[in-house]
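I hope you will forgive my troubling you with a question about protein structure. I am sending you one protein, given as its amino acid sequence and as whole-number tokens for its backbone shapes. Thank you for your consideration; the sequence and its tokens are set out here:
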Amino acid sequence: MTIRVMLVDDQVLLRTGFRMVLAAQPDMEVVAEAGNGVEALEVLRATQVDVILMDVRMPHLDGVETTRRICAGGQPEGGPKVLILTTFDLDEYAFSALKAGASGFMLKDVPPSDLLAAIRAVQSGDAVVAPSTTRRLLDRFTPLMPATSAEPPRPELGRLTDREREVLLLVAQGLSNGEIAARLVLSEATVKTHVGRILTKLSLRDRVQAVVLAYETGLVRAGGAGA
């Protein structure tokens, strides 16, 4: 199956470079481009897209707000997954985009092989792209968020079994299914089942949103430790 990719970035030269890389892949096709969020939302009304490579700083409508609108239900079920492209200096924007519903993020200077792997991972539903990078980002910016003790409790967390809570903690610490399976002495299939149930019970889009929720509620504190 061909992965239909949309490029959203106000830098034409950057879009050209990404398009050349993706065009060389037999399983990918760039089906649309846009120079800002307003254009992207307009194009999406008439174009079927699987994965969107989204810049964060753009004129008229930035990548964070565009991502929020895409992930807020404006697209049909099975709509496009958003992969944020950012730079180290703009990590705070990537964090906001993750909260808005993005399925992951990559640095703009990422090696082409890593970018291609990320697109395939997002398309397949894995969603967690470079979990160690995600963890560093959250560790950096979670201390800047309001204290979790001041936030209302999330009653849905009580729906999790002890094992599901344990799996959620490990997901939030950046572990893959295989690593969680080894840690808990389970099969990968069993871990995948637990993760699926966690997402369903907490009404979360994907694993990245589970990571954000775990940090926001204090289940995991900056530094990756459990509460």
Summary: The first helix runs from residue 12 to 23. The chain is about 50% helix and 10% strand. Confidence is low (pLDDT under 50) at residues 145-152. The first strand starts at residue 3 and ends at 8.
